[in-house]
Design goal:
Elements: H1 9-20, E1 24-27, E2 34-41, E3 44-48, H2 51-56, H3 58-64, H4 77-88
Antiparallel strand pairs: 1-2, 2-3
């Protein structure tokens, strides 16, 4: 049987960096839903939604009400515009640092 030992401080630190590194809280300029965002390049954007922010987004509610529900890979165009605005305003850094 495979067993796992305790997690070292170094491992916990690596996990935190991998999961949370460089995530910046951004609020949608339309509905004010807050998400955490990391942008490693002009073409790559990672967005972490919470249950509360999903419920707050009227665009997602509209998509969810359609037959078949919201396509899981679709994003909110209003939020994406807010993210791009944050980049232009210097609130969100673009580019990976230390591999994250």
């Amino acid at each position: 049987m495979l067993s796992f030992g305790g997690t070292t401080e170094e491992t916990r630190s690596d996990q935190k960096l991998y999961l949370d590194g460089r995530l910046t809280e951004i609020a949608c300029l339309d509905c004010l839903a807050k998400v955490r965002v990391k942008k490693n390049s002009e073409h790559q954007t990672s967005v972490q939604w919470t249950g509360g922010s999903l419920e707050q987004c009227p665009e997602f509610a509209r998509m969810a009400a359609q037959p078949g529900g919201r396509p899981v890979h679709d994003s909110c165009p209003r939020l994406m515009a807010s993210i791009e605005s944050a980049v232009l305003e210097g609130e969100l850094e673009v580019g990976a640092a230390d591999g994250y």
